[in-house]
Amino acid sequence: MSKKIKQIAIYGKGGIGKSTTTSNISAALSTLGYKVMQFGCDPKSDSTNTLREGKYIPTVLDTLRDNPHTKAHDVIFKGFNGIFCVEAGGPAPGVGCAGRGITTAVQLFKQQNVFEELDLDYVIFDVLGDVVCGGFAVPIREGIAEHVFTVSSSDFMAVYAANNLFNGIKKYSNSGGALLGGVIANSINKPYAKEIIDDFVKQTRTQVVEYVPRSVTVTQSELQGKTTIEAFPNSEQAKVYLNLAKKIASHQESKVPEPLTVTALREWASKWADHLLALERMESVSGSGI
Ligand code: ADP
Ligand code: MG
């Protein structure tokens, strides 16, 4: 009997740290001895860059455009520690559906049974989650991924995108869609940022998987074209990513989240605005910043 491949999708708003986090998870899992494929599903097509010395790889869409008989193996590239890297790609900006690359790429891989053939332990999809429509919903909708995680900071737009994703997950949950594993809280350096995210997951009946601080070690690694796991394996930040990867590896039970309505989300945000203002007043009296 073939082993079960764990398929995970990581969503989040643009620029929130999906690719950085995903690549560090992939790198960490590979150092733990797992066979991993990272599948970039962002039209930016830079998901796997820090696994390959900062270099871009040809995307599935571009390669298929040049040669309709492309084999899945032609669009798989080896990265750090043997990680298989794929970029679905997208149309030129402003032309066509940005999510089409995902549909096309996933079809190609499924038809050719690539995940099984490579004997993978993990396939991690790195998906742009500002809009959970059409192609971007494919990993959730079609039972491709089993568990979804979202990267969010405590910024309102990031939380807003996470809440939209929860709506998408809930919608497809009755028809075999992927369920939510939890939130990866990124760039959490201040106590209030942790409180905001903690409150959001409580309201939406989910959980924080790991708190990842904003760190200059990540910047230094990225500038070297590497993940933190590769560039600074003994750093505190690498330990955080390793912990996160272990939690994802042992994660079993995903759930249907309870997204907030737009009105409830607005009210929730204003409550926090008042709270932060009060905190700021208190801190300016005591002389320390929040
Ligand atoms: P996304 O894939 O969501 O668009 P990226 O992973 O490309 O976002 O991250 C955007 C930028 O933020 C990158 O320059 C990355 O190095 C930086 N970044 C992400 N997470 C952290 C962190 N925890 N500490 C420092 N910089 C970070
Ligand atoms: Mg990215």
Strands of the widest sheet, in order across it, are 3-4-2-5-1-6-7-8
Low-confidence stretches: none
Supply the CATH class of the largest domain.
Alpha Beta
Number of strands: 8
| Distinct compounds present | adenosine-5'-diphosphate, magnesium ion
Give the N-terminus to C-terminus distance in angstroms. Answer: 55 Å
CATH level 3 topology of the largest domain: Rossmann fold
General description of the model:
With 290 residues, the protein is α/β, with parallel strands linked by helices. It has 2 domains: 6-259, 3-Layer(aba) Sandwich (Rossmann fold), CATH 3.40.50.300; 261-290. It has helices spanning 18-31, 60-66, 100-111, 114-117, 138-141, 156-172, 191-203, 216-223, 228-231, 236-250, 262-286; strands at 6-12, 36-41, 77-78, 84-87, 122-128, 147-152, 179-186, 208-212. α1 packs across α10 (236-250). The radius of gyration is 19 Å and the shape is globular. 47% of the residues are buried. The site of adenosine-5'-diphosphate (ADP) has 16 residues, from α1 and α8. Magnesium ion binds at residues 18-19, 42, 44, 46-47.
In short:
The protein is of the alpha/beta class and 290 residues long.
For this entry, give a set of tags.
290 residues; alpha/beta; Rossmann fold; 2 domains; 16% strand; binds adenosine-5'-diphosphate; binds magnesium ion
